[in-house]
Design a protein that fits this description.
alpha+beta; Thiol Ester Dehydrase, Chain A; six-stranded antiparallel sheet; 2 helices; about 15% helix; about 40% strand; lipid biosynthesis; EC 4.2.1.59; HotDog_dom_sf; lipid a biosynthesis; cytoplasm
């Protein structure tokens, strides 16, 4: 499946500014993998305090960006767009941070299915800057109905 623009990404994810961390999808192979982009800019709110004088994207937000890319992969692969189902983080394993992510880069998010079931999926992901791994993690997510209002 070819590129997905921000409208299609927003159709797959419930996240909105400032928590939407996927700007576009470059490639999506249903039931297999996704390659997405997060444009990291100095305008991100977290750079005000992390860290003044040496802005670095927090590792937890890099992992969240990977999880959001995985959410798009799961929603598109399982045909859940418009269903109201949500993809909830359940576990993060073996997270490693290899290099700082600074403003002005395109963070490439590569995620693949490790295991896919109807309600629980496992993923392996890595975030790259200029082809070099900045972070990697394995994680598990659950597909479920949104909480009752």
């Amino acid at each position: 499946m070819g590129p997905l623009d921000i409208r299609r990404v927003m159709g797959a994810l419930p996240h909105r500014y400032p928590m939407l961390l996927v700007d576009r999808v470059e490639e999506l192979i249903p039931d297999r993998s996704i390659a997405a982009i997060k444009a990291v800019t100095i305008n991100e709110e977290f750079f005000q305090g992390h860290f003044p004088g040496r802005p670095i994207m927090p590792g937890v937000l890099i992992v969240e960006a990977l999880a959001q890319a995985a959410g798009v992969l799961a929603v598109e692969s399982l045909g859940l767009a418009g269903s109201g189902k949500l993809v909830y983080f359940m576990a993060i394993d073996e997270a490693k941070f290899r290099a700082p992510v600074e403003p002005g880069v395109l963070l490439r998010l590569e995620v693949e299915f490790v295991q896919k079931r109807a309600s629980v999926c496992k993923f392996a992901g890595r975030a790259l800057v200029d082809g070099k791994v900045a972070a990697q993690a394995n994680f598990t997510a659950m597909i479920a109905d949104p909480p009752a209002a």
